[in-house]
């Protein structure tokens, strides 16, 4: 990758690494690139709907979920990139704005294979959101 960025999201899907969003020293970024390990090449991907750095990212069924982050303020917005069709889609916002969030997917069976938020409070009263 020939452009600099700090605090991007980075995830691997199949044999490709996606580097999305971040901060270039002047602006928060909506852009992303994918690195193909076989061809040793970086290729741009479509831009996110929201510029964000220091967001959380996780992969599920060849879809990259990006949540929260920073663009001068903490963000509650979330979106999903479908790796197969190459398209971003907004999804339900987080319960509150967050920066520096860490994400993972936990497989919970449902009929439609939808991404649904699950919220619960832990023993200290902190809200945990599982998507």
UniProtKB/TrEMBL annotation:
Sections of the chain in a coiled coil: none
Signal sequence coordinates: none
Superkingdom of this protein's organism: Eukaryota
Keyword field contains Repeat: yes
InterPro entries given in the database record: Kelch-typ_b-propeller, Kelch_1
Pfam families: Kelch_1
Keyword tags: Kelch repeat, Repeat
Alphabetized PANTHER family for the sequence: KELCH REPEAT SUPERFAMILY PROTEIN (PTHR46344:SF27), OS02G0202900 PROTEIN (PTHR46344)
Name of the featured protein: Kelch 12
Taxon lineage: Eukaryota, Metazoa, Cnidaria, Anthozoa, Octocorallia
